[in-house]
Write a structure and sequence with these properties.
single chain, about 260 residues, mainly alpha, 10 helices, 2 strands, about 75% helix
Length: about 260
């Protein structure tokens, strides 16, 4: 299973390099079901793996002038604040056992996986529909769009802190539709935001977990190789065309997690 896990780690990087997101959507299930980690530890490991991979992936976009740092800060600052508050105050409040129904107990691990699965299904919808037309009126002011982007950044931060999701599936539509960035620049800027969110999220909570650095660094290294491959492929392949297919895969994974955790 670990060999399959290492193989799947390449796909984490490729998805980040090609479509600017989706890495964490793959990372947590890979760590839980292929490497046998509990959901909480997988969340922490995911933050590091996705953060380091996104940092490496953003370099080529930066060299090509495809990163807007001003917008990265507009989106990233509220995200970072939300991550810190979530990992410091919200996560510790979740009890080890939340609910018992007959013989079935919803533990903290199961709860985090179910939240993650719902997030995957929501992300898959966004990827499958691939709405590039602005959901916000063209007549809306830049100020209101920035305010909405700050709001989405806050939501992304909460999700990142809670389940280790980088939130690329929410970041890119916001950058394109609200802040009117070209797709390539949105992907490069998204990678910077994801890297910032994930690494700060990991550093703020790493004292709470016992980290097996050899395993973590080996998975991260393979994911980095994947993102280098994905970044090269993005020059020849339009990531937007791959998003719907990737979305269907994410949908199946989300349904599988819910089915496994509740019924199996």
């Amino acid at each position: 299973m670990e060999i399959i896990g290492y193989t799947a780690s390449v796909l984490i990087g490729i998805s980040l390099g090609l479509i600017g997101g989706g890495g964490s959507i793959l990372t947590v299930p890979v760590l839980v079901y292929l490497f046998g980690m509990d959901a909480f530890l997988a969340t922490e490991y995911s933050l590091f793996i996705v953060g380091v991979s996104s940092t490496v992936g953003s370099v080529s976009y930066f060299k090509n002038g495809l990163v807007n740092f001003k917008i990265a800060l507009i989106f990233g600052v509220p995200s970072v604040i939300s991550i810190f508050l979530t990992t410091t105050y919200l996560l510790p409040l979740i009890p080890e056992q939340l609910l018992t129904i007959k013989d079935f107990t919803i533990t903290k691990n199961i709860f985090l996986l179910l939240v993650f699965a719902v997030l995957m299904i929501f992300a898959s919808y966004k990827m499958i529909t691939s709405k590039t037309s602005a959901e916000i009126s063209e007549n809306s002011s830049a100020h209101s769009n920035i305010a909405l982007a700050v709001g989405q950044g806050t939501i992304v931060g909460i999700l990142t802190g809670l389940v280790g999701a980088g939130g690329g599936f929410m970041i890119i539509p916001a950058l394109v539709n609200l802040l009117k960035l070209p797709m390539k620049t949105a992907i490069g800027t998204s990678l910077v935001i994801i890297a910032l969110n994930s690494l700060i999220g990991f550093s703020s909570s790493m004292t709470n977990v016992n980290i097996e650095w050899t395993l973590l660094l080996s998975i991260a290294a393979i994911a980095i190789a994947g993102i280098i491959i994905g970044s090269q492929l993005s020059k020849k392949i339009d990531g937007k065309k791959l998003k719907p297919a990737f979305g269907w895969f994410v949908l199946v994974m989300g349904i599988y997690i819910i089915t496994r955790e509740i019924f199996l």
